[in-house]
Structure formats: C-alpha cells, structure tokens
UniProtKB/TrEMBL annotation, chain A:
Family listed: Belongs to the bacterial ring-hydroxylating dioxygenase alpha subunit family.
Highest taxon of source: Bacteria
Keywords: 2Fe-2S, Dioxygenase, Iron, Iron-sulfur, Metal-binding, NAD, Oxidoreductase
GO molecular function, one term: monooxygenase activity
UniProt-listed PANTHER family: 3-PHENYLPROPIONATE_CINNAMIC ACID DIOXYGENASE SUBUNIT ALPHA, CHOLINE MONOOXYGENASE, CHLOROPLASTIC
Protein name (Swiss-Prot/TrEMBL): Rieske domain-containing protein
Transmembrane segments: none
C-alpha cells in the first residue's frame, strides 16, 4: 500500500475506493480533511438555510450556518429575502446574537455601527467628530452570500459566485427531494427548530439517511413497542446478543423492494418504494404517501419521482423525511455535529391530522425521539473509533450490493431497484471525493453524473 | 419541647401549609428516587391517565421578543407526551434493546425550590427547580438545570402528576440525546 502525501489529489483519491466499496476511516476524524470540506464543500455548495414561512414579516430573521460562517436570513421591506454575514464590517463582532426574532435594523453592540435590514451601513457613531465624515458608508455594508435563491419556499444560498443556479445544482433528483415535501400541500414551517449536539462526524449522519439496513437492529426497541412496522421474516445471518440469544431480528416489510435515485453533485434518495410502503402501512395511514398520486404532485414529481417513499438527501447535509421534516446536519468540527430539525405542516390538512402529524414528528426523531436516541449513539461511537491508530487502518465497508446496482435512466432520474443496499451511501462518498478535491463545477457535474452501474 | 412551642404559637393554617409543603417535597423526593433507581414502571404510575408531559423548545431571542422564547403546545417540542407515549418510553427502556440506555446511564435528580403556587383543593400547581446530572459510558457527562411546573392531583393513592411542563435552561441542547426523564 502506497502512502500518499496528505492533502494531495492522489492522497484524497486513496481514501475512497468505489470499486471495492471501501473508505479510509481518516475521513471521519482528520482535521485537515475537515478543513478541505469547509473550503470545497461548505464554501461552494448551495446550502439549505430555512423556509420562507419562518420569516413571514419584514424584519423577521433566522440565523443559519454556512460552514463556519453564520448568516442572517432576513425578510426585507419589499418582502424579498437576503442573507447577510453576521459580522460587523468594522471590527468583526456579531451584529446579532439571537437565533431568531424580529428587528428594525442590526446594531453592533461594540461601537454601534448600524445596518439596515438590507445590510447597508446606515449609522456610525462619531461620523463627524471622530471620522471627520471621511468614512464612505456605502463601502462597508454587511457582506451578502454570493447567491441566494428559493425553490418552492425553501431558501438556499451559496458562498460561491461561480456556482450553477440553484435549480441546476438540485437537478431532477434534488428537486424531487424537495417536491416530496413541498407538493404535499400548502406548506408552513412549525415554530421551533430542535437543535442538539452530537459528538460525531457529519458524514455519519449524512450517509445514515440512506441506510435501511440499520433499523432492524438499531431501532429494534422502537420496533418492539410498535413505533415502526416489522415483517414476519427472519434473516439474522447468525446475529446473537451478548448472552448468545438469537435477537429475533425482524426486518422492515419493505426491505426487499427498495428504490434508489442517484443525482448529480451527490444528491440521492434511498428506501422503500411507494408500492412496498403501501403494502406495509395500515390503510388509515396511506394518505401519508398517496397524496403524491394527486394530479398536481404527480405532475411535479413525474412517473418515477412519485414512486419514492424512502429518504431523499440533498448533498451535503439536508435529509428530508417522509413525514414533512428536514434534518439539517451542521458540522462544527471533525468530531462535533449539530442536528437541526425543521418541521412542517400542510395548512390545508384538518386540525386533527396536523396534530397527529406533530405527534409523529416529535416522537420519532430529535434527541428524545424513539428512533434518533439510538442513531446518535452509533454515530458518536463510530466516530470515536476512527481516532485509534490501529482502528483507523480498518476500512469502512460499503459493499452491500456492490457492482449489482444496475442504473435505469428514465424521466431524468437515475434509479436502481433492489433489496436493501448501500448504493446511495457509496454515491455520497464518490461525490464527496470529487468535492473535496476542489474539482471545478463542470468537471464536478460530469464526475457525479450516474453511469450504468454502481 | 420545640413541637409544643410551635403548636402554641403557629396558627393551624400555617401548620397545614407546612405539612402540605412537607407532603409535596416527600412526593418529589420519592419520585426522584424511583428515577435514579431505574424503577420506571413505578415512576410512570405517578402520572394520571390524562396527563401531559411537555418540554418546549427554547430559543435565544432578543429581549423584546421574549414572548417567543419558548414554543407553545401545538408547536414543535422535545417532549409532548400523553400517558400512552410515556408508557411506551418506559416499555422501550424495558426491552433490553434500547441501546442508548444500555449500558444504562447514571442519573441523579436533585429537586429543589419547591413552591406551591396554587392550591385548588383537588389539585395543586407546583413549581420546582431541578438539576439532572447524568454520566454515560466511560466519560460522558451531561447536566440539565431547569424549572418544572406540575399540576399535582390529589388521589386516594396520594399525589398524581396531571401535567408536567419542563423548561430547560439551554437552547441548543448540549447533549446528544434526552433518553432520560425529567
């Protein structure tokens, strides 16, 4: 095995082996890799900031992370939205220290420089007496993100002026990901973003969105109390508890009939097909997924897009759940990630259904969720073990279904139909490698365009 | 002698108030002991069948937006449980496969500043402060300090919790889960 010099393209390419489905565990704990991710991924990609309905009135703001930058997403007087870097152009202090709220302007509490909702510098204490009117206020507004755009109410921004337009970045797969939430109806963000802190690398949270191999074990206790359905089939493959007992592993009933979509720039969808989900859900819950066959949603999603009932994930960090939530994973360092849960409702649904959905949203995910308590444990312990000198030399395996993923191109979607697999995870890391190498946009798009097999 | 002195100088209603304070504090001490000894089935029995167990999300907001600090019932929350959900959480812990609590965390519930803020006879409203200290695995430490507002209903079995609202003194949670009870 050749050891390449850290940071070089050859070194980075040695970290992800798509042919064997093996990753180098260093990518989960090396600070140098994290710095490259901050620069080449979070400094360039279109990142989800918030939903328009979180900031309905002029002066409403929501602070969102973009890499290590903090931006204020602000509703303007003309109803448009701007995203401003939360740092005073004088000496750098944050001009706002709240997570959300409503303001008439932003005043830095260091020296009083005051910025309008649009970021223009409108007030400088001592302008005449101290600055002798020699300061050109027009040259020192709050800095804006390079590009901001919305897709069906979801606000995105990028720090890269060269980035392709949002719709092109999303591509068909990314748009389907959002449509699977946006087309439900008249979507509104519920007040309250759950935020909590995990001691894990962000990529464990990202690839887990596609992982339908883990629920039967990780979430076995939630399954046991009826939180998620189970099938009457057992394929334990010899898995046993510490005491040597068979676990009684019950896979999800959908596990032999799943659909994967692979998209440009690393977006993907993975999980049950709509048909298998309908066979699993009790009839009273079919409306959770059948709305997508209504004319409006069907037109947006298309014949292929409407068949996904799994987990869409926008590269790098936005997972859309089946029940109108977005889990945004916010990398704070190589070993610390915050999870932010945005939750939505359809204004057209009955109060009873809105309430029932709120209950499902609160009880499934988040730090007290029946499911996510166990997820956090896996991710933090997996991260910790990548730090050992010997442990980190063991490859990370994404071999399930390797080489068997026949990609079908139809209606602009590259899909795979197969039992549970690790294709979307591998796609994530294949794309991740292209991003961290600093590949230019044209090449990045071409290198992350799905072929015929994975 | 001290008791005799109290009886001669304190009005009966003051003695009744002291006794009520004592009963309520005993109830909370008992409840905390059940949690810290992992006797969750007994703990959940302390809640009425129509109980609500609610922990809103807290947000850092400008002082003049303080009315928006906590989310309200009907909005997102960390906990918004009825009795069946609370029982489900206890059952989940009892499966032996709730990995976030196996190995189990070690907790200490310190309940203090007990204030009976309303006494309607059949039920009381009680505010308490708590410090929940938890260690997990080899070296994880979590601490949550906050305020609870309970409705305690008088029953033949003693007090039962008919509502619990939990207000944490954190906005971004600094812990990786809330796999414990408050």
């Amino acid at each position: 095995m050749t050891i390449e010099a850290p940071g070089t393209t050859a070194y980075l390419e040695s970290l992800v082996d798509v042919a064997t489905g093996e990753l180098d565990r260093r990518i989960f704990s090396d600070e140098e890799i994290f710095d490259l991710e901050m620069k080449h991924i979070f400094g360039r990609a279109w990142l989800f900031l918030c939903h328009e309905t979180q900031i309905p009135k002029k002066g409403d703001f929501f602070e969102a992370p973009m890499g290590k930058d903090n931006v204020l997403v602000v509703r303007q007087r003309d109803r448009s939205i701007k995203a401003l870097l939360n740092t005073c152009t004088h000496r750098g202090n944050a001009v706002c220290r709240a997570e959300e709220g409503n303001v008439r302007n932003f005043m830095c509490t260091y020296h009083g420089w005051t910025f309008g909702l649009d970021g223009e510098l409108v007030g400088v204490p001592g302008m005449s007496d101290f600055y002798r009117d020699e300061l050109d206020r027009s040259k020192h507004p709050l800095r804006k993100v390079a590009q901001l755009d919305t897709y069906k109410g979801f606000v995105f921004a990028t720090m890269d002026p060269q980035a392709p337009p949002l719709q092109e970045f999303l591509g068909r797969t990314g748009r389907i990901a959002i449509d699977l939430l946006a087309e439900r109806g008249d979507i509104e963000a519920r007040p309250g973003v759950q935020k909590f802190t995990l001691n894990c690398n962000w990529k464990f949270t990202a690839d887990n969105a596609f992982d339908y191999y883990h629920p039967q074990i990780t979430h076995i206790s939630a399954q046991a109390v009826g939180m998620i359905p189970s099938a009457d089939v057992n394929d334990t493959g010899g898995a046993k508890t510490d005491e040597g007992k068979a676990l009684g592993v019950q896979r999800l009933p959908t596990d032999l009939d799943t659909l994967v979509a692979l998209g440009e720039y690393g977006h993907a969808i993975s999980g049950p097909s709509l048909d298998s989900m309908l066979r699993t859900l009790p009839p009273e819950m079919h409306e959770l997924v059948t709305w997508r066959r209504n004319p409006g949603p069907l037109a947006a999603l298309g014949p292929v897009g409407s068949r996904f009932a799994g987990h869409p994930h926008l590269f790098p960090t936005a997972w859309f759940t089946m029940d109108a939530q977005i889990s945004l994973r916010v990398p704070r360092s190589a070993g610390v990630t915050e999870v932010w849960w945005f939750s939505f409702k359809d204004r057209n649904e009955s109060p009873e259904e809105q309430k029932a959905q709120l209950g499902r949203q609160i009880h499934s995910f988040g730090p007290a969720g029946f499911l996510e308590q166990e997820d956090g444990e896996n991710w933090s312990q997996s991260t910790a073990q990548t730090r050992g000198g010997a442990s980190r030399d063991i490859p990370q395996l994404l071999k399930m279904g390797l080489g068997r993923g026949k990609i079908i191109h139809e209606d602009g979607v590259a899909r795979i139909e197969a039992p549970v697999n690790e294709h979307a995870q591998l796609w994530t890391y294949l794309s991740w490698l292209q991003w961290v190498k600093g590949t230019d946009w044209d090449e990045l798009r071409s290198a992350t365009t799905p072929g015929d097999y994975i | 002698m001290a008791t005799a002195h109290l009886e001669t100088t304190l009005a009966p209603e003051k003695i009744a108030a002291m006794y009520l304070q004592y009963e309520v504090e005993q109830f909370y001490t008992h409840e905390a002991a059940l949690l810290d000894h992992q006797r969750f089935e007994e703990w959940v029995d302390l809640f009425t069948d129509d109980t609500t167990y609610f922990m809103p999300i807290r947000r850092t907001v400008p002082r003049r937006n303080l009315s928006r600090e906590f989310t309200q019932p009907g909005e997102m929350a960390f906990f918004d449980d009825d009795k069946a959900t609370l029982v489900g959480r206890v059952q989940k812990l009892g499966t032996g496969t709730a990995w976030a609590e196996d190995p189990p965390s070690r907790t200490r519930h310190l309940v203090t500043n007990v204030r009976i803020v309303e006494d309607l006879g059949t039920q009381l409203t009680v505010e308490t402060c708590f410090h929940l200290y938890r260690t997990r695995l080899k070296s994880e430490i979590d601490e949550w300090i906050g305020r609870r507002e309970d409705v305690l209903r008088r029953t033949e079995e003693g007090f039962r919790i008919a509502r619990r609202d939990i207000y944490l003194d954190q906005t971004v949670l600094l812990s990786q889960n809330l796999s414990n009870f408050f």
